[in-house]
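User: I want to check something. If I give you two sequences, will you return the structure for each one separately, not as a complex?

Assistant: Yes, each is folded on its own. Here is the first sequence with its structure:
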Amino acid sequence: MSTSAGRKEHPISMRLPEADVAMIDRAAGLRGRSRTDFVREAAVRAAEDVLMETRLIRMSPEGFADFMAVLSGPPTPVPEIVELAKRPAPWEPGYVAKS
């Protein structure tokens, strides 16, 4: 009887240029992670991003009509965002760091 039937982890093998492995190892070290943990986490995060981008959103016809009405209506300014957009950037004259 095979013991692989109950296996919950699956190996993945990749061929990478030495420079890629060095960069991955350096980044993993900065995060205090092993190469395997770092690559697994990055791959899973990238997969989640792709799945979220392509996820179907279902709503009722009434909900969709309400959604479209909000998108079609005039924008409502958010005072905090307006204030933020008016501040000079850190590299511009007049910038004062907020504490």
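And separately, the second sequence with its own structure:
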Amino acid sequence: MNFKKTILTNGVRIVTAPLPGNPTATVLVTVGTGSFYEAPEQGGISHFLEHACFKGTSKRPSAKHITTELDTIGAIYNAFTSKDITGYWSKADAKHFGRIADIVADIFKNSTFPEKEIEKEKGVVIGEIDMYADDPQEKIGEALLKHMYKGQPGEREVLGTKETVRAITRDALVAYRRSQYTGPNVVVTIAGGVPEKDMLAWAETNFADLDAAPANPEFPTKDRRQEGPETVFIDKDTDQAHVVMAWRTFDRLNPDRYAASVVKNILRGGMSSRLFIRLRDEMGSGYYVSANHSLHASFGFFAISTGTTHERVPEIVSAIIEETERLKTEPVPLHELEKVKEFIRAHRLMSLETSDDVAEYCAEQETLKKNIMSPEELDAVYAEITAEDVMRVARKMFDGAKLTAAAIGKGIDKEAVKKAIS
């Protein structure tokens, strides 16, 4: 994959990834900010700012002007906010690169935040908060984080609370944007069938005027030391019980993150993975099972989630524990290790087929790590991972004293769950 990074004098990082012959172009502007950069009373302001930027600019005075112009050229477009990154993007036929680039830059730099639109959008975001509150999977995940990281940024929801959203003012949005959307904190990524010189010329013209001041830093999460396994339960009349098991691990720059990715895919990478076979094929316990390693600047956690009947929660928790313990005590067979490495490599390859995939791949690495590893470099790293590395990292990750098990449902045998993880 061909890409180049250019840094402007004001600190803006421009990543250009020309894809000769690709019929589309993607423009993605990311900022290193999110809920981890908010004071408690600002909860949700990063996400709300992302919404508010679409409500009109000095050049396009309403949301309808923005969306109609993009729809007229058949573009797709959106924005996103997470714990530590915010992004604005559009993708279209490469011949429309100039149009989507102008609109994305306009939204990012020139939003006017009309007071009336801000008040209306509060209803939209509060509706989003209510939507997730009605979802038991979301609810137990939120409860788990609040338990594990109480009093720390790690417990915060990206959306904020109804109270903090209602308190957001236009002045607060302008001040927050000024503090975070600064040159050194911005990455402009362009990928697709556009000459690199045109990509770079546009980015330099449109982003050289951003303030060069450093952005406000992240509020770090100080992970606490557990004395032993802990539990979180929510009694709710659901048709299915939802279980999340999370272990405290390490930050996103830890060198063991690659071996941890192999561990994750051994457990839940494809339908031949260990948890899929154990829970679905052998036990028929429920429909979904997932594993995810969340890595952030100052902490991380590995989570396994599944749904089952309320009566089977202790049994399923025990089965998950058994599978994680196996990784600590039994070397992964060579054929399985090679299968998982190929699974990771092939999925990375398939995830880079389109211009928006390539833009996201580059932007996420550059924004969060200030460095982009090519697919070839990552292939070389994974090639060196051995069964001994997998076992060592599994022992490091699946420390029972760092485990928190959470479940939501009705009539769950809580004592049996506690016994299963003890």
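Because they were folded independently, the notes below concern the second chain alone. The mean pLDDT is 98. The longest helix spans residues 115-133.
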